[in-house]
Every structure is written in C-alpha cells, then in structure tokens.
C-alpha cells in the first residue's frame, strides 16, 4: 500500500463506515473465482439502454470489460485493426454489432462463432481486402450485413455459407469487378431480399452468370458501376420491385439488352440518375417497366430531359417523379404536359429562376410539389391552380415578399414551407385561402412584423415555426385565429415585449419555444401565459429573466399552467447572480421536468418544489449553489434524473437524507467534493447511471467504499470511472483513482470495537451461565488439573514406597480410624500406614504432604462418609489418588464406605461416581454384623501386588 494511504488511515476526520460493504465485497471476491461478477465501471465505454457505446475512443482493440448481457455494441470510429477469436466470446446475447469506421484489415476465422444471436453487423468503412473461408461462421441468425467502403477484391466460395437467414447485404464501394464474385456470395443466401453492390467497378452484367442462383431479391442497387453491357436473357429477378441502375461518373454508354419485357415487369421504383445510354436504349428501358412503374428518379441527367419526361409520363402507373440536379433554370409550359398522373414532383436543386404560369396546369392530380433550393424570387403563380395540392415546399429560395394572391385557391394545402428565404413582413390577407393548412414553416427569414396574419385565418393550423426571425413584440391577440395550434416556435428572435393577451386564443397549444430572446422577468410576471391552459412545454432559456431574492411573488407567473410538464428557464446573457422566488413554480402540479441550468443561481429555497410533486427530471447544473438542503428534495420523491454538474458543491451529503429512493440517473460533474461515502451510495438504491467526471478525488481510505462499489457493483454504471484522477495527497496527484491500493482500508476501528464488545459480552454470558449451572463440574475439573500437575511432579521425583497404605479420612471419622482401623492393620496385620496427623512433615505445604504420602504408599485407603465428601482436603486427596490410578494403570486405590450414601449425593463427584459404576468397594458392616470378613477382604486388598491387572479387589457382596 502507498505510504500516503497508510498515513491517511489515522486521519481523525475519517468517518468511514464501510465494514459491512467490506465483508460483502470480500464474499463477492471469493464468489468471483467461480462466477464472473461484471461491474459497470467500464474503462472506455458506457451503457445506454442495454447498448455498449464505445464511439470515438481511439480504441485499438475490442474492450473485454463489456457486460455479457448487452444486446448492442457500438465500436464505430475507433482504430481497431484486427478482430480476434476471443473478442466477442463473452457476448452470447448480442443482437447488433457496429464496427463502422475502423482500420480492420484482418478478421480471424471463427471470430463471430459465438454470436449466434447477432442480427445486424456493420463493417462499413474498414480496410478488408478479402473475405476468407467461413469468415462469418456462427452467424446463423444474421439478417443484415453491411460491408461497404472497404477494399474487397476476393470472396471465398464459403464466406457466406452459414448466413442462411440474411435478408440485407450491402457490399457497395468495393472492388469486386465481376458479377461472378457476386454470384459466389448470393448463392448461399436463399432469403436475401436486398442487395446493394453500388460502385464495385462492375463492367458487365449477364444474367446467365446468375442462372444457378435462386434469387428472391426485391431491392437491387447496381448504380455507379461502369457497366458497358446489361444483358438479361432469363427471368433471374422475378420479385424485383426496387431497382437502381444509375450511371457512374465515367463517360461511357451502357448497352441495354433485355429482350423480354416481362423480366422486370414488377419494378415499381426505378432510379436511372446519371445513366448514359442511347435514346433508343433509354426508351427500351422505360418500356420494360411500363406496366408497373410508380416512382422514377432521373436526377442529374445529361441527355434530352424533356423527351425522357414525356416518355416516362406516358407510363400510366407512374405517379412520383424526381428530377433533382438537372439545371432546369426555367420550367416551360409544356415540360410536364403529359404528366397527368403524377402526384409527387420533386424539382429540388435545379437553380430554377422562373416558372411559366401554366407549367403545372396538366398536373391536376399533383399532391406534393418541392421547389426548394432554387432561385425563385417570389411564389410562382403556377402553383395557384393546383386544386389537389397538399404539400408545397418553397424553402431555400430568394423570396422576399408574400402577396395576398400567392396562395389563392390553395384550399386543400396541408403543409407549406417558406423557410430560409428573405421574407421581412407578413400581411393580414396572405394566408386567407389556406383553410386546411396544418403546418406552416416560416423559420429563418427576416420577419419583424406579423401584421395580424394569424388573427383571422388558418383555423386548422397545428404547427407554426417562426423561429430565427427578427420579431421584437408579440401584440395582444396576435394568434387569435389559431384555435387549433399545438406547437409554436418563437425562439431565436429578438422578442422583449409580450403584451397582455398576446397568446389569447391558443387554448390548444401544448408546446411553445421562446428561448434565445430578450424577455425579462417583468414580462412573465404579467401573467402572459395564463391563456395557455393546455400548455405542456415551455422553454424560456437564454432570456434576461432575473430575480434578486427568494421572496414570494405577489402573483406566481405559471399559476394557471396546471398541465405544464416541461419548463426550462433562462441562462443569463449577462453573468449576474440571481435567485428564484420561493413560489416561482406555484401551480405546476403536473410538472415532470424542470431545467434551470446556467442561470447563475446562488441558492434554492427549501420550499421551491413544494408545488411540483410529480417532478421526475431536475437540471440545476452550472450554478453557484455550493450546498443543497435535503429538505429541498422532500416534496419530489418521484425524482428519477438529477443534473448537478458545475454547481460548486462541496459535498453530496445532502443525498443521504434527501430520500431519493427512485433516482436512476445522476450527473454531478466538475464540482468540489472529494469523497463519496458509503451513506451516499446506500441512499440511492435505484441508481443505474452516475457521471462524476472532473471532480477532485481524495486517494485515501475515505473513498475505499466508493472504489469497491465502483468496481464490484453490477447495477450502477459509473461513467468514465477509470479516468478519475487523484487530487490529494499531493504526491498522488494525477494518478488514476482506480489504480490505488485500498486493501488495508477494509480494517475499520469501529468494526474492531464492535467485534471486541460483542465477544466480551458473549464471553461474560457464557461464563455466568457456566458458573451458575456447572459450578461443581468446574470445581472437579480444577482439582483434576491440580492432580495432574502434582502427579507429574511426583513422577519426576520417583520416590520409593515408604508405606503400605495412605489413609485418607475426615477428622470426624478419626475415632473409627484410631480405634478400629489402626489397631487391626498395624497391630495385628503389621502393615505400615501413613496418617496425616502423625506422619506429615511439619512446615511443608499440605498439598505436597498429600501427594508425597499418596505416591510414597503402595495403596491409598479412602474412608468415605458424608463428612468426607464435604471436606475440601479429602476431595483433593481422592483426586490425586484417582489420577494416579488411571495414570499409572496400577491397583492403588481402596474405597471403604463407613455409611450408605445415595448415588445422587455423589453427582458433583464425577470421577468417584464413575469409579463406583465400574468397580466394587468395601462397606463397613452395619451394627450387629460380623466384621471378620471385612478385615479379611481389606487384608487381601492390601496384599495385592501393585502391577495387578485389576485396579480394585472384587468383592462378591457389595454391602456388608
């Protein structure tokens, strides 16, 4: 461990309480040897909606820390040059893989073998030169493969063998050069529906080269190939409906050889843009699709365009005609005279300056007309007499003025686009005939005055785009006639004056965008939004709204907007510190999203969100809040997303008591806190994504729990965690936070105190219980231990037997010993006896005298009575004697009972009771009975040799 971390452990300010997590993580570390525990602290990627996103990270290899449960993996725009077998082994449920824009030149065989669930694979814009044998082995469920813009020249015959379910293949912008290579691909793809082989330098196309293929293609793109001969002699495309055979940049004529006009009889969409061939071949081509064509694209044609338009418009089924990039500076009156069935005409990007007034007269079925990106200076009169027209696009022209007759008779028009022109003002009558108009696009003009254009007409208008103009004032009743309007865009203007009643009549408006204007707080305090009773979204960002304190306003500006769901308030143009009135959000009972980013707030009153119980998303980033109160979040317990980046926050401790149990997304970048405590982590149980980039972390034990959580948790993704850097201590500054060792931080002093206290209490309880219940057994064990010590000591001395027997008795039984036992054994039988009152050495410890006497005698005679059992020294004598008995395996103990003692009285004397169960003993005869047999048996017991097999002399009758 780093010495700085070791020193940091003793920091008195540290109050880490991570012993519970430490134990959990310890168990997880053990389990991880058996089961892979995948955390969400990814080194280079992030997870969004179960998709691993690793875009533009300069990766040179596929990262291996991706969770095995992801269904999408985006590795586009990196520097990966090689795909290895092990790269995707751990992603069994992956359904889409994007490797677009890398440097992949080699893919190992079997690299995709484990991706059995993959459905979409993108290998566009790489450096593959060939597709080897079984390259895509394992992709049995793949339905979409894109490998365009590589350098593919060769394709092995079995490359696509396993992809039997493939429906779309895009191999455009490669170098296949010959259709036989295409055949080697599609012969294994029975369900292929879409094939794009655009720009592959194909020079010929002969159908006989595909005759062995079972083709069910519906979409075929052969464009931008320098095909010199297109020959179809068999019906190889029976299901083809979309066909692009547009020409290449080369100036080379294509020869059309389709002898049977039924071979392409189902093609409904045909693109021949830029195609160069003789007029007769072009005519023959169009005749081939005469019975089925509905949409024709003839962009950037270099031949006789009017003649081609006449031929194509002669096809009775053709309804959509696209003529882009054809340099039609003028549209004559007879250009479309045969296009009576056309319903959609696209003339975008043609540099058109003038259109004859009767140019579209024959297009009586026209529904959609696009004239965008041309050079028209006014609305062409040719558009006025189109009774079926639904959509008209005049965007990106040079129109500067709109007249009252410009849209005469356009009663069926639903959508009108005039964006990106130079219109400076509107007139009251300009839209008078557009009674069915639903969408009007006027953005990015120079409109400074509406002149009542929306006060009387446009009853069905739902969307009005006026953003990017030069409006300064919204007058009273300016939108009175727009009863059906739902979306109004007024952003990017110069609005500074909102008159009372300026939004009157907009009772169905749900969205209004007012950002990037000059609106002040005095304007919104007038209650200008009160008429918008159904408003759901209000954007006031980047205006000049500023409040000096948190005092309640006399009238809350949004009090009538009970259905408002999204509110964004301004960031300041001038960097002036501000507050928000405590009742600023009063009335917004359904508000779910509040954006107060970058408004230079100094604080938020604790009652700010009392009026918004449904709030789910809160953004108060880029303010100077410094500290937040837990009480601020008490009313918004449904909060799911919180953005508090760059708020100068010193700590996140407010989250501990904020009770945000439903919070799922937290962004807290670039603040001033350095420690994330365990309490903060535990206070957010539903968190699934957290972004803490740019903070100054302390690399010490204070963050030990945070580091363990980042690495081991499998619920919350900590974005960019592996790039977190240390800021303290100084000598660790700049090091990666997750590279710091924290093992010793797991030992917490409070945990030690807890364990010590617990053990002490348990020990006290066990000892108390034992002393109360087993006190006699403990006393017995104590004496047994002493006997063991004395026995060891005595054996070391190896003293000779000085006596025949040591007499162990209680002082109260001394008269019997003196009158009965001593005369009989010493006087008559001649045994040498040891008695404590006579033979113990004066001045010597009693216990030493006892052990010396017992080990110095061949036998020990215990004279047992009730008084004997109550004597402490007698108990010690019998313990020593019994220990010698069992230790030396010799017959050294004789028990003599002077009176009958019940068994239960012997319960505390465990060893004596055990002896009585296994051995016989002598009992002094009752009064009136003969004693001769007793003395004879005792004599025989004393006479038994010490090494006898039996320990005690057996007596037939146990009681005398």
TrEMBL record:
What are the protein's UniProt keywords? Glycoprotein, Immunity, Inflammatory response, Innate immunity, Leucine-rich repeat, Membrane, Receptor, Repeat, Signal, Transmembrane, Transmembrane helix
Pfam families, per database record: LRR_8, TIR
In this chain the TIR domain maps to 801-942
InterPro entries, alphabetized: Leu-rich_rpt, Leu-rich_rpt_typical-subtyp, LRR_dom_sf, TIR_dom, Toll_tir_struct_dom_sf
Q: Where are the transmembrane segments?
A: 21-42, 751-774
Write down the membrane topology: Single-pass type I membrane protein
Supply one GO molecular-function term.
signaling receptor activity
Q: Tell me the compartments it is located in.
A: Membrane
According to its UniProt entry, one GO biological process term is: inflammatory response
State the Gene3D superfamilies in the record.
Ribonuclease Inhibitor, Toll/interleukin-1 receptor homology (TIR) domain
What Gene Ontology cellular component terms go with this record?
plasma membrane
* PROSITE patterns (UniProt xref): LRR (PS51450), TIR (PS50104)
Q: What family is this?
A: Belongs to the Toll-like receptor family.
Please identify the protein, giving its name as recorded.
Toll-like receptor 13
